[in-house]
Amino acid sequence: MTHLELLAPARNLDIGIAAIDCGADAVYIAAEAFGARQDAGNSIEDIAALCRYAHKFGVRIFVTVNTILFDDELSRAGDLLEAVAAAGADALIVQDPAILLLARERGVTIPMHASTQCAIRTPERARFLESLGFSRLVLERELTLQQIRAVSEAVRAEIECFVHGAVCVCYNGQCYLSEAIEGRSANRGRCIQACRSLYDLVDGDGNVLVKDKALLSLKDMNLIGRLEDLAEAGACSFKIEGRLKNRSYVMNTVRAYSDALDDLCRRHPDRWSRSSSGRVQSGFTPDLTKTFNRGYTELLLDGRQRGLSSMDIPKSTGEYIGTVTAVQTGPGSFRTTVRTACTLSNGDGFCFAGDKGEVIGFRGDVCQGNTILSRPVPGLRAGVRLYRNISAAFEKQLRASQGVREIAVQTDICIREKEILAEARSEDGRIVSVTLPVPEENARDKERMETILRGQLGKKTAHYAFRTGALRNLRPDGSLPLMGASFLNGIRRRLADQLDGIPCRMVPLEEGRIGNVPAPETATYKENIANARTEALYRSLGSQTVEKAFECTFKPGAELMRSKYCIRFELGLCPVHQGARESGPLYLVNNGRKLRLGFDCKACEMTVYMNSSKRSTSPK
Q: Among residues 500, 530, 564, which one ends one of the domains?
């Protein structure tokens, strides 16, 4: 039996609780520093509160400490590790191996997970990181099923895969474009998302081949239909991207994937089960088209394909609703008619691509049938493809009916002459019991009394959903005592209190193991070594040459990006796979800044370089 985990993002405590209530098996959240999303930090007090709530359901909390560290930050990072562990966190998500050394020195024993920032895409890289003591590996997004399976078979560590959300065009942890342009390092949580900017594609003669397109921007990942394939390939954790996303995004995506995992486990009960307890009852019906997305792709799971980019609209589009058929402007009104089968609601948000590649959005003040009344919207005209990126009706549904997460409890009853024994077993295996004297008076209607007993003991208390199981009546005359609702409710509440006194059983996480896999003989700047502790570790493991991280040296001529996504292939210009004529040198140009593209056709990868050895603005 393999336990499958749905891992949800949380920007803050409130969103973390919402993720748990919607079915997450684990939540990842940043502490106050050293997280790869600088604007998503949280206090130790909030992390402790989230851990307390999560552990009621056997849900695990992972804290991100996944930036590279400079020497003067190591002491503070060590303090943070101790505080996070004391707050009850179940694991840390880490990029810099110095964290492993600090944890051992400080006596922090919780598992360490190698962040996707560690650029894990080969069995060799996986074995090396496992040998450092990482117990879980968060794989690169741009992998095929075969590559995921190969990594899984090479290690004993747990395998975690992203299944939904935004996708970096570059291999994770090895994008230096933001640092090169603005002195803001993606490996330090300060990425400017230059990949979402508009560029011209220019050839070596200065001819503009493509103008004002987000040529490096990819659609969002959506693998909700591929969870079984990933589980078959060896993944046990399915991760949703989005630590900067809002509450409705997290609720919607978590509920959708939780329902899908429940279905997978129901179809294969002998192979897979969920790693936490409690299931979501009632609430809203999820719809992944109705929250933040740039259009969806399964990326490279089945191998190379076109249609990965969101170059026309690099921001959230939501759902495509139809084509504008007419626009009428009158005194104080702006009426848009759209050919659509969707039901529109007042307050819906809409967007479309402008003539210069920009995203233009507006609110529908009044929506009637297929017409939208709004303020004047420049650039909106007949023929425009219109998207709805905010569904007012769906957002209202999310606010009104989040649903309730409940742990199932079966209660068996034994009636003796003068006492009642109630024994409860929770779905995670906790067993408690209550014995109370019963009233002396007997019920006149035995059948009705049994119905009342089952009804009262089968209600909900706190986050427990009680169900009355076996009823044994050991009274010689077969009578039942007269038990009122208050008496029976008291039994149920006592059982709930006793269950609360026993920790919910949690599936243990894999523990890290130290191995003897050597480090690469030459540790290049792509290893992101930014402090003396990590450098010494690499040298002790066999590295003869150790380069400093790009953030420390701004290495001239360095490769700023390497990606399986290729602009030439996306545009049908690939000479290898599409038979196109060799294009010669190609550049991306934005406001006078020029990036040189390279094409490693043997590896089928695209590279990006700065066309100048100097940072275009002053460093950080």
A: 500
